[in-house]
Amino acid sequence: MGDPRVLSFPDESGTPPKPRNAKGKYLVIAGVIIPEAAWHGIARDYKRATRRIRGGLRWKHFSAGNAGAPISHLTDLEKRDLRNNIFEILTARRAVKIICCVTCIEAAYARPSIVTQDDVYHPTYKGVTKRFQYFLQDATRVTGQTQYGLVVSDHRMAGDDKKLRKRHHELMEGDEPYTLNYANIIATIFFSPSEVSRRTKACRHGRRCRAPILPQWRTPICSDAKAVLQIFA
Questions:
Q1: DSSP character for 221?
Q2: What is the CATH number of the domain that holds 169?
Q3: What's the pTM value of the predicted model, to 2 decimals?
């Protein structure tokens, strides 16, 4: 039997805006951590919960005005129940965790080293990979077995895939002073077709894990967002 493997599915809140549009904006990259042993059970329960859904499911489909969404045939009550069921598929499993990194984009552009949108994205992605490595280190210490991690990401445009792959490789193989040793993360990042990964990442909620404190939101947030914030409390 080989060493245990853990899957991490990071995703971002969107493309960082350019400096002129950065006021009050945040970039969030979060990832669900799923141990290999838990994967089949989660996939089975998710398939059961979404048996009435055809096509990939995204969180934006739950908002009003998505007439062509795969869940447009459901009532508001049925949509809420579906969302709660998906949430519970992950939160009911103590082995599932969430990692998250939040960047204030306006503050980032105030730094001389941050000039482009990629300059905002890459340090945020680095924060998520660091937390994943720390998680694997802690799990190795607790279980007494070396835990290895795989990072699985959505396919983007070809140029974006190439940049992310390059940045991921630089992090894994970096030899700069004071650089984190990513000894537990397999060096290659795996890209999955978006329509597939949306089905596997339809819920990004998990159990409590080391993560940055989320910012104080200036606008009212929905009950689901409050539930996520409680995970980090």
A1: -
A2: 3.30.420
A3: 0.74
- Structural domains in the chain (count): 1
User: What is the predicted pLDDT for the residue at 174?
Assistant: 73
Half-sphere exposure of 37 (CA within 13 A, CB side): 9
Tens of pLDDT, residue by residue over 121-134, are 999 999 999 999 99
Query: What whole-number distance in Å separates Cα of residue 195 and Cα of residue 65?
Result: 21
From CA 120, how far away is CA 89, in angstroms rounded? 32
DSSP β-ladder status, 26-35 and 97-104 = antiparallel
Cβ-proximal residues to 99 (8 Å cutoff; 6+ apart), any chain: 8, 10, 30, 31, 33, 128, 131, 132, 135, 209, 210, 211
Q: 51: left (phi > 0), else alpha (psi -120 to 50), else beta?
A: alpha
CA 46 vs CA 38, 49, 187: distances in Å: 12, 5, 29
| Range of the structural domain that residue 144 is part of | 5-231
Q: Looking up tokens 């537990």, which residue turns up?
A: 184
27-50, pLDDT tens digit by residue?
A: 999 989 999 889 899 999 999 999
3-state secondary structure of 150: strand
Q: Which token pair is 62?
A: 């739950």
* Coil/strand/helix, residue 69: coil
Single-letter residue type at 223 = S
